[in-house]
Design a protein that fits this description.
- By secondary structure, the protein is an alpha/beta fold.
- Helices cover 35% and strands 19% of the residues.
- The protein is built from 20 helices and 23 strands.
- Strands 11-10-12-13-15-14-21 form a 7-stranded mixed β-sheet, sandwiched between helices.
- Helix 9 packs across helix 10.
- The longest helix has 20 residues.
- 49% of the residues are buried.
Length: 644
């Protein structure tokens, strides 16, 4: 039969099922196919917190959302156009996110009485399709026995029914790949490599994938195939990349550009563990990794590595930062380069291990005893994690200070196309190790001698010299008790303590002098409202501003990478606008800092539900503020794609 081909400019698909159904793998493979095809894309994996929640229950549902388009997009999308639900729990958990008219492809096999009860259904909703009381009546529902057809397709390989049924995710992937014209060769190649040692499993998965494609091609249930053309992109070599992977590569690049070996001392914690896993593969680049017994040992080993002349790095999430706080203070006192990566998750305490949040900003700013200032850098997208990591390395090495790098779960696990940078475009980072004594001392008898003073500061950066232990004549001691200026001897002098506290603060404040001017996105130059953000809110803010502008109104946007110190021109930028809106996935931490430093009435837009901010809802808040500032009525009737 002939199939209709319909052109679309964007689609949002969500794969959902039990945590053992392979939804993350399915979504990742569909993402890779779309990346190969040339679409712009953004993804949102969503994991259950439990390692193995009871099968068929709502807490055990795992999902993967991918938004791909023929144009530049900024978010993973507010609501899926297509839901692939592998069981009743997956259907019920995600139904509330679907817009009217969305397509639901549902595996009928697991809609048994037991599974329906687990999911909280009194009756099978699939039995009511087309009835007056159809609970799915506002959606386009396609019931398909994915499991049954998979088992039938792979029976020649002699697998048990349980093992055969596990390939149903590949059948679903094949069907969706046909529906949206995705290339299939990359997935076949992937399966051949992944299951190379188990021929029957390899062949069963490939067969299920191809069977899903053929089902879409031949069945009368799906009569439309959709086409989303490649997106225009700047020339270059691209790859699909997650935030954690990009951050890992950025740390490696920081080591290469500085000529320093990288040492990672880390304790596994969700969602930061992938950085440890990735860096452990790159010994060829001079990377050493230590999986420590706890968070404190992890950062302690990293500080020791920095003392010995390496670039020390430690990775964790918010609960780990709490444990590392005293050691971060030690790195402040010893003034050693250290990159502290905090991949933020929902808190407090153990909180929401698999959900995103950006509520560690004040912890990064002030979460240490005493006056212990630490520079803070935050990436804005998965690919930007690379550049942010390089920048954190630059600051740490140049200014001899620990640096906090604030990523989050959305960035860490999400992915997007990333243009691989040219090596020549990366900044050169100079460690400038001390190689000779730096101070002439005159004794009482008039004789002169040369000494090494570990706290004699560079006039421009205020950084102290960094001497590798074992360098002849540069023997010295550092530690956590207050240091006398210049000599580094232990000092309890009140005036000296006041001086050292202020000079460490001045050193961090001086970093602002090395930062480029902020880029303000204000196309008309007539906006009265400025939306300011940091971290992963970049996508929703940009999409929300697009929608407001599409409706014919003016709004400006500025996004902060450097949160301590703030860029020098931030205060002047804030004064240009009548209203300042600050969206955050916390209860108003950046807005508090802006109010305190610049005396600006920063208005918070705050969400702490463990999920990224939705662009459409944020656009409405922006529109209301524009209406208030300009005395107009704002009607956001722009096309849906403008808000993505």
């Amino acid at each position: 039969m002939s199939k209709q081909v319909k052109q679309l400019d964007r689609v949002i698909i969500r794969f959902a099922g039990d945590s053992g159904d392979g939804m993350q793998l399915t979504g990742d493979r569909f993402t890779q196919e779309s990346a190969v095809f040339g679409n712009d894309l953004v993804t949102l994996p969503n994991f259950p917190a439990e390692i193995r929640a009871p099968q068929g229950t709502l807490p055990g549902v795992s999902s993967f959302q991918v938004h791909f388009a023929d144009h530049d997009i900024l978010t993973a999308g507010d609501a899926p156009d297509v839901l692939v639900a592998m069981n009743p729990a997956a259907l019920k958990a995600n139904l509330g996110d679907l817009p009217k008219g969305a397509t639901i492809i549902v595996d009928t096999h697991d809609f048994t009485g037991r599974n329906l009860t687990k999911a909280g259904y009194d009756a099978n909703p699939l039995d009511l399709l087309g009835d007056a009381n159809d609970p799915l009546g506002e959606f386009q529902v396609q019931p398909v026995d994915l499991t049954g057809m998979t088992v039938e397709a792979v029976k020649e390989f002699g697998l048990s029914r349980k093992d055969a049924a596990r390939a149903k995710n590949m059948f679903a992937l094949g069907l969706l790949s046909w529906m949206y014209g995705r290339p299939t060769d990359p997935t076949v190649t992937f399966l051949e490599k992944r299951f190379a040692k188990v021929a029957d499993i390899r062949d069963a998965n490939i067969t299920a994938f191809k069977a899903g494609w053929n089902f879409g091609e031949t069945t009368e249930a799906f009569v439309v195939q959709y086409e989303i053309k490649p997106a225009p992109m700047a020339p270059g070599t691209y790859r699909n990349i997650t935030g954690n992977l990009a951050l890992s590569y950025g740390l490696i690049a920081g080591g290469v550009q500085s000529g320093l070996p990288v040492f990672l001392g880390s304790y596994p914690i969700t969602p930061a563990s992938d950085i440890l896993h990735e860096l452990s593969k790159h010994k060829a680049f001079g990377v050493t990794t230590l999986q420590a017994e706890d968070e404190i040992a992890g950062i302690g080993s990293a500080i020791g590595a920095s003392f010995a002349g390496s670039l020390g790095v430690t990775t964790t999430s918010g609960p780990g930062i709490a444990l590392k706080s005293e050691a971060i203070g030690l790195a402040v006192m010893t003034e050693l380069p250290l990159v502290v990566v905090d991949v933020q998750r929902g808190g407090p305490s153990t909180g929401l291990p698999t959900k995103t949040e950006q509520a560690d900003l004040l912890q990064a700013m002030f979460g240490r005893n005493g006056e212990a200032p630490v520079p803070i850098v935050a990436p804005q997208s998965p690919g930007d994690c690379f550049s942010a990591a390089v920048e954190a390395c630059r600051i740490a090495i140049t200014y001899r200070t620990p640096v906090m790098l604030l990523s989050d779960g959305y960035l860490a696990n999400g992915s997007e196309p990333w243009r691989i940078p040219e090596i020549d475009d990366l900044p050169a980072i100079e460690p400038n190790f001390a190689t000779e004594r730096n101070q002439t001392v005159v004794a009482k008898d008039g004789t002169e001698s040369e000494e090494y003073w570990p706290y004699l500061r560079d006039e421009e950066t205020l950084a102290r010299p960094w001497a590798i232990p074992g360098t002849p004549g540069l023997e010295h001691r550092i530690g956590g008790i207050e240091k006398a200026k210049n000599t580094g001897n232990i000092s309890y002098d009140p005036a000296n303590h006041d001086y050292m506290v202020r000079i460490r603060q001045a050193k961090v404040d001086g970093i602002a002098n090395s930062l480029p001017p902020l880029e303000v996105d204000d196309p008309s130059g007539e906006a009265k409202v400025l939306v300011i953000g940091w971290g992963s809110t970049y996508g929703p803010i940009g999409a929300g501003c697009r929608r407001v502008r599409k409706a014919g109104f003016n709004v400006a946007q500025v996004h902060l990478r450097h949160l301590n110190p703030f860029p020098n021109d931030l205060g002047e930028i804030l004064k240009r606008y009548d209203k300042v809106l600050c969206p955050e996935m916390n209860l108003g931490q950046l807005s508090l800092l802006l109010r305190g430093k610049y005396l600006v009435d920063a208005i918070g837009y705050n969400q702490v539900n463990g999920m990224p901010i939705k662009a459409a809802a944020l656009a409405e808040a922006i529109g209301n503020l524009v209406a208030e500032a300009e005395g107009v009525t704002v009607d956001l009737t722009a096309p849906q794609e403008a808000a993505q």
